[in-house]
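Q: what sequence does this backbone want?
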């Protein structure tokens, strides 16, 4: 007997099982493996979004009002320096002079974006195969919907609109308990937590401000909603703003770079 985590899971089981289950759709296993080899979870998130909305006549209707730049325009290429010190991905403790001039850097930027666009095109073909071999309601999606540009924009939409969330559900408790295999390290009365990303219309409509007058948070007891609270008194007519990088550990310089590259905020 299949175990369903909640009533919501049960209502969506036919779509998600037919599309995103390797046993029901072997092509999904190929797509998932390739996405993980690329080290990019956004491919999986985009596939889940299409699986959820694929039964609609317009698979993109739910996202029509959201900013959706191609995801290769929301990220930076890896930076290079002439430092002789070994580097394992962390920032060097000392600055070094750049190896490339502005023309060289522009050329590298174009090369990086072209490579990412090409990778996205390959993943779009794999995802098209997944959908074509799934439920009739999803396989009717036209091929043009899965162009590299369309998939790239869906991934970009997630990058610039999603926020981190924590969800707790009593429905998951039996499954968490069985996975503990009798371990007493977790209080049996404590509901398990699931961490991930979610897109909320209200936060997507709010602009960024370093001195934000509001902050947002997920409600573990109601993950389908988010909380927007003021940080100080707000006068009538004042715009409500949030800090997009709230809670992050970036330096001021890194914050400026992320805001400029990912959100086009200068």
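A:
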């Amino acid at each position: 007997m299949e175990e369903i985590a909640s009533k919501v899971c049960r209502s969506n089981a036919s779509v998600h099982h037919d599309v995103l289950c390797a046993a029901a759709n072997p092509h999904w296993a190929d797509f998932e493996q390739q996405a993980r080899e690329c080290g990019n979870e956004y491919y999986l998130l985009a596939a889940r979004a299409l699986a959820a909305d694929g039964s609609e006549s317009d698979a993109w209707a739910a996202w029509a009002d959201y900013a959706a730049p191609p995801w290769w325009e929301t990220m930076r290429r890896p930076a290079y320096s002439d430092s002789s010190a070994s580097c394992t991905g962390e920032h060097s403790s000392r600055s070094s002079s750049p190896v490339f001039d502005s023309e060289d850097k522009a050329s590298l930027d174009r090369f990086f974006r072209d490579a990412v666009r090409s990778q996205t095109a390959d993943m779009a073909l794999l995802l098209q195969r997944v959908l074509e071999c799934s439920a009739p309601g999803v396989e009717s999606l036209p091929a043009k919907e899965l162009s590299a540009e369309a998939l790239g924009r869906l991934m970009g939409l997630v990058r610039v609109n999603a926020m981190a969330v924590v969800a707790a559900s009593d429905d998951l408790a039996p499954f968490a308990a069985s996975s503990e295999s009798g371990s007493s390290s977790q209080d049996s009365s404590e509901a398990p937590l699931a961490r991930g990303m979610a897109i909320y219309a209200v936060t997507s409509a709010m602009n960024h401000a370093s001195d934000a007058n509001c902050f947002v948070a997920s409600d573990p007891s109601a993950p389908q909603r988010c909380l927007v609270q003021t940080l100080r008194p707000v006068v009538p007519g004042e715009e409500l703003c949030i800090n997009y990088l709230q809670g992050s550990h970036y330096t001021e310089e890194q914050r400026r770079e992320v805001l400029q590259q990912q959100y086009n905020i200068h």
